[in-house]
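Hey team,

Filing this mostly as a record. A colleague (T.K.) asked me to run one chain through the structure pipeline before their review meeting, and I want the input and output archived in the tracker in case anyone asks later how it was produced. No errors, nothing strange. Just documentation.

Input sequence:
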Amino acid sequence: MSASTDSDLHSLAAPYALDALSAEEAAEFERHLDDCESCTLDVQEMRETTAVLASAMAVAPPVAMKDRVVRGISSLPQAATSTSDSSVVELAERRGRGSTVNRWLAGVAAAGVLVAGALGVSTYQANQRADEAQVAADQMSEVLADPNAVIERADIEGGGAGTLVLSPADGRAVFMTAGLPDPASGQTYQLWAIDDAGATSVGLMEPDAGEASEFVALPSGSTAFGVTVEPSGGSDQPTTDPILVLELSA
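Output structure:
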């Protein structure tokens, strides 16, 4: 269905950035982008956010995984008809061959998955990490695909920038950072939902090379989102001035 009003077109920024629109909708939205600076900025920020998320969510497989995968493939029935000089094509050679449709959303979802269980990677720790990454990736991709998502962004005191993508209907959000310095030894970054009564912790964050991505659930009534530097393990209440405060749209 083609959007026909400015309000409808503005709401397509997130699904357009994720290549989740039909060809007709995408063409109409691209015409709208020519005259809408706000949507152009939203699309740019959403694509940057998704790219960082895919990188931050990547989970390294166990060292022995490749050997097990190769052995598993060689034991499959179809392998019996292969010629003796056939080789396994590295994953990197196949990247980019698929359809571009939904490539960003697919990248977010795939970043948290270890396709290992069926081929015998059975350690509890690896499976647990995979399950947790899958759940987080699913939650994040749902927020990023929300056509009503609100994007708030600001510089962080001390360096870097933070972006919050919020689904206003249920308070689910994705917080992303870029260029954020590592915390000092014995310290961590803590995330807070802020309302008239004070601050409630919604998680801890450890950047990797300045980048981090966290799924957060903001309680109903939250009016702002903040980040502070706290002792390792976090605090019950903020003990330092916030390095970032994002006011949430009503």
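Quick notes for T.K.: The first strand starts at residue 150 and ends at 155. The two ends are 29 Å apart (CA to CA).
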